[in-house]
Amino acid sequence: MLASYATERFLFRIRDRRRVALSTAAAMRPNTIYVGLPTVQTVIGNQAIGLLALYIAVAMPLYNLLSPLSSELIMVHRSDMRSFLKNAVKSILKNPMVMAPLCGILLVSLGIKALPLMLDRSLQMVGNAATGMALLTLGASIEVSRVKKAFAYCWREVLMRLFIHPAILYCCLNTVGIDAALKNVAVLVTATPTAVTLFVMAKGTGLDDGRAAEIIVLTTLLSAVTIPMWIVFLGI
Which residues cross the membrane (predicted)? Predict the structure, then answer.
């Protein structure tokens, strides 16, 4: 996240807050469930599912919280510190993708581990429909005429998502001497393409949802080449 923000803001001197916010969010939203899970299961085997569950338990809440949170903070204008804090808090409280994980953490901390059955099933039905609707909306938002130019616009996000982010994680895990099996799982999942939820978040927070769609499509297509490269690099 910080690497993406620093790259956009200081290296390429991008002034458009919406672009910087989208790039930052895209860098930290791997497709853990739909790409990461089957990849880990196929490449490493069922014995890695426990490690993946551990990774998901730690990383997913952070991704879901920090991604929209960082976007909101970047988007808020900094006229003065008091106004900045006021606007930032207001934007965060209005963002369901920030409040949802916070509410979940609060419920767990209060010892509430299960919702009433009727409410749980209702929310599960809505959640199951959300991914399908997101994919339909994503497909409908893609302009075929822009496909050839998409990589020229989004190459930095693609590079950050598929190479730089997993490389940073690999170096960090190597430095702290983490278990090799857990390191392989974490890096492999982090090297997956951008999650579809980026499009949902971009749509809901006023970011460039068209560019978000292009990032998702490009990273998904290119991951067919880059994920095998990471598998070879990790020696799995």
Answer: 49-76, 97-119, 125-146, 158-178, 184-202, 214-233
